[in-house]
Amino acid sequence: MRRSVKEVLGGTEAAKGLTVQGWVRTRRDSRDFSFLEINDGTCLGSLQVIADAGIEGYDQVQSMTTGASVRVVGNLVSSPGKGQKWEMQATSVELVGTAPEDYPLQKKRHGPEFLREMAHLRPRTNLFGAVFRTRSRLAHAVHRFFEERNFVYVHTPIITANDCEGAGEMFQVTTQPDGGSDQEDFFGKTTHLTVSGQLEGETFACALTNIYTFGPTFRAENSHTSRHASEFWMIEPEMAFCNLEGDMDLAEEFVKELTREILEGPNDDFGLFSRFVDKGLEERLRCIVDRPFARLSYTEAVEILEKSGQSFDYPVGWGENLQSEHERYLTEEHCKSPVTVYDYPEAIKPFYMRRNDDGKTVAAMDVLVPGIGEIVGGSQREERLEALRKTMSKEGLSEEAYGWYLDLRRFGTVPHAGFGLGFERMLMMVTGVQNIRDVIPYPRTPGVCGP
Ligand code: 4AD
Ligand code: MG
What we know:
By secondary structure, the chain is an alpha+beta fold. It folds into 2 domains: 5-97, CATH 2.40.50.140; 122-449, BirA Bifunctional Protein, domain 2, CATH 3.30.930. It has helices at residues 5-9, 112-116, 126-148, 198-208, 244-264, 267-277, 281-290, 298-307, 324-335, 385-394, 403-410, 423-431; strands at 15-29, 33-39, 47-52, 69-78, 86-97, 152-153, 159-160, 172-173, 191-193, 210-218, 231-240, 294-297, 339-345, 361-369, 373-380, 416-422, 444-445, 448-449. The strands form 4 sheets. The chain has an 8-stranded mixed beta sheet with strand order 6-10-11-16-15-14-13-12, sandwiched between helices. Strands 1-2-3-5-4 form a 5-stranded mixed β-barrel. Residues 366, 374, 377 line the site of magnesium ion.
């Protein structure tokens, strides 16, 4: 009977005639038997196998080196060894694929920088196995969160002709690498990879009330930081009949719920993060789950930064963008908790955000968390046709190209709001991993596109 290492290690009773398949982590030989540690990535732990000399296939044991793949049949017995409940007494072993001496993941523990150079092999290590299992769990938790609240999952397009964030940081999609007119191009116009599914998401919220998207997003920004990737995943809920307040409430609840999922879920992978990646992780996540988030208007945030006495690299002042160092001061030093900052200056935010009555700010919000800075960005959308047309013309957006977006304001317009949560930043927060390149299977950053 075939069993995964996870099933075997989590078993409650001894069993006979089980088949386990996986990769050899280590092997130790005695005169009469060999110990094999077998890992198949289904969980953090490895299965210890005792292969007595003379069992079927024992003549191949010397080739079962670190990295080789093997199939083992045997009986599960309780283990006298420390740190494991079960071990397998093999009745036969079989070499499936060899791994020569130059297999790069030998016993020695490698750092994440070294392993980044071999993204195709790193899931075989304890750290990356744990990261990518956690990534999968977190993705399920995202869907569960919205499913429980009756949000409809919408697949917004990847190829698009609009620039949602208006920052012009887009990858062009073309079948005419040598140039040519837009009309001759594949879609008969200029198209790009999406920077956000929001605008299309709005059209669905203005029909189905509460929706969310969860998909890949692309940004051609030349940011060389540990928190920016050129391809990342974003979750974007959008809610009709909702204002900024409701938007902030949902964003905070969402961040808390995902954090709780990781804190209170199976603890072997989390244990690895809190023991080896970040010793303060558990305490920090507890505080995110247990304590309310702080809320500050942008104007209050700027006052706090101005009075902080800190010397920042980037200037602080009303009208300036908050930089990561400012965001981290607010959440880590001042509030000592996550903080939601709202009502940003109109001039530093995209066209779709709702103008506030003060004539200076828009109903925008960002959630900032310790260790990361911005994890969520969102807003109430401008639902008033004339106000939206005014900003669009100011920003040079053509009414023809965005006619469909204006239609939402022409036909049964409603106050609506939404936000985007960076999935990788969330993963960084719950694992303590410091670099975004280490929480996405194949990172894409300026100048880097591996397999
Ligand atoms: O703040 P952003 O740019 O907001 C939007 O795109 C809105 N359209 C969302 C909405 O209202 N529906 O991005 C949202 C989040 C950020 O807070 C950050 O967590 C993440 O996406 N993000 C990135 N993550 C990794 N690499 C990058 N280059 C990122 N840019 C944004
Ligand atoms: Mg943002």
